[in-house]
């Protein structure tokens, strides 16, 4: 019997074979990544202290006593039968020590934990400590919990350490006064920050660090060198709200994770996840303990999402290559024989070939993992999109039923802006979403006709959204007529490409993307007097089928203003 593959691409036909070939090399998952600066305070030599601690940790896992070269801080390789591959490379100038250990999992067959360590001395006497942990699986792909090697905590206990310029210890940072709040805000808004900041809040009147909804100590210890962990008192939480806004603050025993790139003027609150006290207490899988594990896993996963470690401290194979090259150059300068130089060159070529093969296998494994995670993410996104579509249609159906039953769904129009955020969530959900930047604009509002702010949002909900979703000339006319009743014009924000002249002013960060506020509602022309000039800037999210408002009610800056 002949099978046809006429409708199957060559790549599709080979996909199962490619998957098997990749599996032979293993799935490679980066687990965690740590970068710390150890300060030289004159009392402890951080380079020797860190190297000694790492060697003690390696000695317990190598399967055999480490050679004498290890104790002297020199290069060595241990790969005898019955041992776990253990290597170290030492460079005298600039002073650098790198190590790598493959530790077989004790419970999962064909799983190996590879730890790479780099210790580099800086010109000011401080020391950079870097550590990367990988999980290499050639057998069953069993889930695992992310972690950092124990020696990281031991080194921090013995030395003064900093993470991204901030002192760190095995205990969380306790924030209780205005100076510390200012320091926290500075860290949150630092554009160079690459690590999560996890803030545990206390009850409103509490200054007891033990009153957190989950264990801040556990999270601090398990993410040491990969995240900043803080506990903020109740009174200090109010000061934090004043600095960054209530919607981005954290209080009443909630826990918030501030991602890198934090900007309260552009970000959405859900971009910086918040766990409420009641939710943490009932967290699926074990309450507060399960929530702690989630925080740890997310922070460590984000620590391996960039290339900061390799940019700051070179990987082990690169250090070994440099060390071999320096050894050959030194031998040449000392006048070694041609035969000796040839042997060193052969050794260098052999190591380069081995490193190239190892690198290829690692990146093949990373590619295989990336493909699995991409497919899973796409599946989750499709499910969420389908669920949102179902819920939106359900809401529309219920609203139509209420109208048919003679029950009014028209909200009252307040005469002030108190409770504005709650009003929007109650009456606009599913049709009009206000970006956090819009809420901050309303907080600063000087516009005198407060009712128009509410009416303009309802105009979008009741006329613009149906026009975009359903189309048709009748919906378009209905929207235009509603605009005339309010004396509002709806127009493009800019003509041509002029938006590029205003930098980020007319953009918001939404759904992980930089999006232009390309439409606006306008009334009044007194640009310089916010009391009489109304503007509402928005864009249409075609995927979610709703309006996103990025700013109101004042005119955004332009060159002419």
Describe this structure in words.
By secondary structure, the chain is an alpha+beta fold. It has 3 domains: about 25-165 and about 310-360; about 165-305, 3-Layer(aba) Sandwich (Glutaredoxin), CATH 3.40.30; about 420-550, no CATH class. It has helices at about 10-25, 45-60, 70, 150-160, 180-190, 215-220, 235-245, 275-280, 290-305, 310, 315-335, 340-405, 420-430, 435-445, 450-470, 475-485, and strands at about 25-40, 75-80, 85-90, 95-105, 110-120, 125-135, 160-165, 165-170, 175, 195-200, 225-230, 255-260, 275, 430-435, 490, 505-510, 515, 520-525, 535-540, 545-550. A hairpin with a 7-residue loop joins strand 2 and strand 3. Helix 1 (about 10-25) crosses helix 12, helix 5 (about 180-190) crosses helix 7 (about 235-245) and helix 11 (about 315-335) packs antiparallel against helix 12.
Q: Let me know the average pLDDT.
A: 83
Number of helices: 16
What is the tally of beta strands? 20
Provide the low-confidence segments as ranges.
1-6
**Taking Cα atoms only, what radius of gyration do you get, to the nearest Å?**
30 Å
Class computed from helices, strands and strand pairing: alpha+beta
**Largest sheet features:** 8 strands, antiparallel
Q: Helix coverage percent of residues?
A: 40-55%
Shape: elongated
First CA to last CA: what distance?
A: 77 Å
Strand fraction: 15-25%
Instruction: Order the strands across the largest sheet as they lie in space.
Output: 2-3-4-5-6-1-7-8
Number of separate structural domains: 3
């Amino acid at each position: 019997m002949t099978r046809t593959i006429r409708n199957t691409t060559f790549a599709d036909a080979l996909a199962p074979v490619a998957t098997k070939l990749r599996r032979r090399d293993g799935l490679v998952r980066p687990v965690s990544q740590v970068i710390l600066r150890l300060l030289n305070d004159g009392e402890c030599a951080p380079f020797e202290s860190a190297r000694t601690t790492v060697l003690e940790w390696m000695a317990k896992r190598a399967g055999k006593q480490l050679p004498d070269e290890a104790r002297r801080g020199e290069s060595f390789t241990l790969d005898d039968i019955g041992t776990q591959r253990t290597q170290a490379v030492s460079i005298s100038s600039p002073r650098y020590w790198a190590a790598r250990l493959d530790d077989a999992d004790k419970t999962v067959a064909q799983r190996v934990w590879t730890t790479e360590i780099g210790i580099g001395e800086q010109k000011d006497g401080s020391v950079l400590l870097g550590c990367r942990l990988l999980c290499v699986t050639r057998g069953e792909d069993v889930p695992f919990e992310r972690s950092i090697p124990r020696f990281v905590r031991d080194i921090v206990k013995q030395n003064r350490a900093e993470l991204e310029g901030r002192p760190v210890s095995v205990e969380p940072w306790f924030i209780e006064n205005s100076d510390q709040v200012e320091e926290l805000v500075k860290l949150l808004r630092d554009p160079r920050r690459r690590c999560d900041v996890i803030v545990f809040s206390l009850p409103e009147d509490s200054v007891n660090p033990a009153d957190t909804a989950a264990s801040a100590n556990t999270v601090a210890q398990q993410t040491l060198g990969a995240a900043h962990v803080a506990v903020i008192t109740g009174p200090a939480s109010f000061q934090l709200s004043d600095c960054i806004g209530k919607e981005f603050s954290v209080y009443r025993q909630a826990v918030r994770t501030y991602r890198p790139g934090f900007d309260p003027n552009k970000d959405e609150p859900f971009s910086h996840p918040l766990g409420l006290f009641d939710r943490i207490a009932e967290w699926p899988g074990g309450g507060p303990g399960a929530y702690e594990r989630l925080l740890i896993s997310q922070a460590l996963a984000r620590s391996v999402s960039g290339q900061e470690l390799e940019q700051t401290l070179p990987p082990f194979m690169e250090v070994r290559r440099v060390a071999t090259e320096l050894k050959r150059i030194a031998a040449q300068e000392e006048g070694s024989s041609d035969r000796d130089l040839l042997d060193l060159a052969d050794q260098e070529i052999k190591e380069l070939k081995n490193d190239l093969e190892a690198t290829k296998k690692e990146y093949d494994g990373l590619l295989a993992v990336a493909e699995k995670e991409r497919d899973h993410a796409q599946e989750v996104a499709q499910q969420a999109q389908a669920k949102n579509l179902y819920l939106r249609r359900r809401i529309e159906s219920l609203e139509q039923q209420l109208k048919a039953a003679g029950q009014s769904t028209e909200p009252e129009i307040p005469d002030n802006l108190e409770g504005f955020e709650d009003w929007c969530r109650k009456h606009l959900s599913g049709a009009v979403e206000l970006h956090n930047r819009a809420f901050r604009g309303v907080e600063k509002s000087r516009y005198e006709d407060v009712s128009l702010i509410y009416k303009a949002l309802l105009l979008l909900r009741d006329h613009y959204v149906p026009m975009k979703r359903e189309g048709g000339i009748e919906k378009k006319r209905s929207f235009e007529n509603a605009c005339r009743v309010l004396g509002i014009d709806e127009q493009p924000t800019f003509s041509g490409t002029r938006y590029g002249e205003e930098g980020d002013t007319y953009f918001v960060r939404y759904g992980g993307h930089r999006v232009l506020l390309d439409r606006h509602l306008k009334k009044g022309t007194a640009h310089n007097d916010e009391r009489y000039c109304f503007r509402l800037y928005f864009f249409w999210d075609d995927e979610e089928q709703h309006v996103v408002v990025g700013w109101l009610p004042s005119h955004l800056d332009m060159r002419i203003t």
